[in-house]
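Training component of the fellowship. As part of building independent skills, the fellow (R.M.) carried out the full modelling exercise for a liganded target. The chosen ligand was S-adenosylmethionine. The inputs are recorded below so that the supervisory panel can assess the work.
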Amino acid sequence: MTVFDRVLQEVDERCREQHIPMLGSEKAEFLAELVQDAQPTLVVECGTAIGYSGLWMVAALRTTGKGSLITVEIDTGRAHAARENFRSANVANLIDSRVGDATEVLKTIDEPVDFLLLDNNYSNYFPCFRAIESRLTDGATVVADNVGIGAAGMADYLSHVRSHYESSTHWFETDLPWVKRDAMEVTIYRTSR
Ligand SMILES: C[S@@+](CC[C@H](N)C(=O)[O-])C[C@H]1O[C@@H](n2cnc3c(N)ncnc32)[C@H](O)[C@@H]1O
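Fellow's submitted model of the complex:
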């Protein structure tokens, strides 16, 4: 087992033991495939937790041979744990981990963004999307987690992306202790519509 795989396994186990939210391997594998297909230069993640999804996305970036990740977490303790995990997995050089409210932090990102993951409390999805929208590239992939269990809390976001862009819902059976079935929304952003 590589150092990276060992850290990923430890993060997975810690999340399960301490009930720290994370995607789980079924959704994470799908997310990594999306990153690989998109070949993004810059990925932005809202909701780092302790870095599980971030590790999956940078593994995909390493496969494509380019790109980096900016990940934002409001909880200082979790953000520090994530940074430690990124260092241990030897991928810290690919990740800019920021602490703060993503609805505000995203406004400070000036670079073009071609992949966005929304995973930071349902009511934040639409404000985060709006905060980064002017830097999303044409054809950018936008992924929202928990659209099965959290649809009511993100109704503004879902109604917007489903009515304005090519958007599809993907369902997963998971083995997470806290949820057994859930979905992700994948939207292809267009600058002109
Ligand atoms: C579902 S977890 C993220 C899981 C992570 N993406 C993974 O799969 O490993 C949601 C995280 O979003 C954080 N969060 C909640 N509101 C936020 C905000 N406004 N800005 C940034 N992070 C926020 C929470 O503290 C929590 O750690």
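The panel noted the following from the submitted structure. The beta strands are 42-46, 68-73, 95-99, 113-118, 136-144, 166-173, 181-188. Residues 3-139 form a domain with the Rossmann fold fold (CATH 3.40.50.150).
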